[in-house]
Amino acid sequence: MSTEHTRLLAALRELRTGAGLSLSALAERTPYSKSSWERYLNGKSLPPRQAVRDLCLLANEPDGRLLALWEIAEAQWSGRAATPAPAPPPEEPAPPAPQEPPPPAGTGWRRLGGSRLLVVLASVYTVIVGGVAGLLFLLLPESEHEGTEPRPTSVPFSFAPECNGAACEGRDPMRLICGIEPDTLASHRTATGAHIELRHSRKCGASWVRVWGTGIGDRVEVTAGGPTHGVRIRNEEEAATFVYTEMTEVRPGSTVRACFRPASADAERECVEGRVGEDATTARSPAPR
Prior knowledge:
Structural class: alpha+beta
Shape: globular
Strand content: 15-25%
Number of helices: 7
Helix content: 25-40%
């Protein structure tokens, strides 16, 4: 499973959990069956592009980032992202082999030569048949039927987070599989209409901020008394989708703080706080600082 497929899978599971959608509910409200959604959300099969859009629509979330992830994951899943091997250099014509003198009579040379010829012909036949079979396999269109078996993977995949505590400091929560079923410590809608959520992973022992509905130049930061990690919205694509800060290590009982800085120079900074171990809240912004 590719890194992009892993990140896409974590985001889809997070969306489903946040929207409170069961597999049965997804099957009732989309063209895909319950068993299909089970395969998509467990990494057994790459979901179709439309399934990603449908889940984003049901969860009332922008789909730009997830569709971008899907494009990369699909290219790697289907093999289109593989780099073709360079063509071998043209071979120099081989000089004619010197003719061997005829063997003495009665040595059985003719029978030996016939065996060699059969071996050569069998080898050429095998190469031709194998090449044609491989070409036909590559040219066959991919089936999108639900009954299609997923491609086997050579390396088993685990949904276990890939970091904990200090090892998560300053790293991507989605890439390290900390974004699966996180807690929401606080959520807030800013005066500019942006949404910020303070997220926390108990398994990773780290927190981060998710933001959407932003404008180009907006910035969001997260800190828990240690290093501050922030992200700035750089373009329209990021403004139309989810953007995540890097993670900061958080211990049980600690307070995590997220601050939103609008791009406008005359707008005020807005901050929210959440305490690890407490129930999720919709926090109000304290006085600007």
